[in-house]
Amino acid sequence: MSLRFALLALLRVGPLSGYDLQKQFALSVGHVWHAPDSQIYPELRKMEAEGLVEGEEQARGQRGTRRVYHVTDAGERAFQEWMRSPLEYARVRDPAHLRAAYLEASTPAAAREFFRAHIAQWEGELAQWEGELKRIAALDNPMLARRLAATPPPDRERTVAFKRFTYEGLVERARGEIDWARRGLALVDGLEAADGEWAGSGANGA
Amino acid sequence: MSLRFALLALLRVGPLSGYDLQKQFALSVGHVWHAPDSQIYPELRKMEAEGLVEGEEQARGQRGTRRVYHVTDAGERAFQEWMRSPLEYARVRDPAHLRAAYLEASTPAAAREFFRAHIAQWEGELAQWEGELKRIAALDNPMLARRLAATPPPDRERTVAFKRFTYEGLVERARGEIDWARRGLALVDGLEAADGEWAGSGANGA
DNA sequence: TGAATTTACCTATGTCGATAGGGAATGTCC
DNA sequence: GGACATTCCCTATCGACATAGGTAAATTCA
């Protein structure tokens, strides 16, 4: 359900072809709401059928076409209503915490590998979000620039502020996960120092 | 796919009926991997068909029955293999950050309500996980006690340590979300102080 | 003893999402 | 001009999940 609002968020700035929309999606809104193109196109068609967006065929080259979508009044109202509605929280399904809770069933080596991989995963995320923050600070992000160009000057600071705030949140999240996994590595060290290498296979321990 | 490993994690401790399993699931593993009973029962049947668990019908009262499941050797091997395999990270779909990125389209009042609701949501989670940590410290959690009873003494500290560590991670996560939302409230205050009340309806600002 | 609750388990329906493709037209480069 | 890349868009298949129920038997409680 939230995919449509993610798409509306991006389309409100101005009309875009399906392809440009999904390209820009991946580089902006897609950082907080992932969707592959195979999901975006059918969703756009659905939204069109429901009157939230309108698509117009445009010529491309001699015989090609593309479809350019814009948000309708109904679409704008739906977006505003969503912004005011209570958020729907997904139920937790956290593979890392699931595994961490049962690491006594593993070995120190496998546990360390798990934490190292977790750190690597979230260091990748951290680097990405820090890069985005730099681009925001430099106003060097094409999607944000496009958005600011379509925004009256009094609103620009606010637009930038909320975008910045969001990425700061992603940075903090990534840092939290890295810290947690580092503490996990320390825990494995401590347990191994106390007990020696353990092998957790078998339901009742080694 | 991870539901089966969550179920195996719990079942490795000892055989359980389907009903007891889903009850205990909700109070333990379900904190990191949610699944309703309507999902658990079919999954157990599937796992049985694949040889990961075995179920035995037992009499219950005069005419009733229940099915008690235990992990097979193949199931144990599958669990161990999963513990060693690279974790599969779900793609991000974060409704709160999605909305936060576009709060300039909202009003200060609605933005504050959003952050307050977010704080309330995560304060609920925080209270729950802190409660679990207290129960772990007091060894007052029936599932953990059952698990420790089935665990050789040298392994008990380790079992408790990883469980504690996992809930500490959940606590930190909750705190991070609350802090973020508090900073969001401060941001709204600051923007309102600078610009006065804004109304973000309309794609190009008020 | 009968009503209410719990134990025990299940199905149906639909949505959302993953993944592995695919085709056609246009544009770029050697 | 042909090979390759990009633009533009799409489908099929399947698994995971949400939700709204449902039935039957046993147990509990007033």
From TrEMBL, chains A, B:
InterPro entries: Tscrpt_reg_PadR_C (IPR018309), Tscrpt_reg_PadR_N (IPR005149), WH-like_DNA-bd_sf (IPR036388), WH_DNA-bd_sf (IPR036390). Residues 92-187 form the Transcription regulator PadR C-terminal domain. It comes from the Bacteria. Residues 7-81 form the Transcription regulator PadR N-terminal domain. This is PadR family transcriptional regulator. It comes from Sinomonas cellulolyticus.
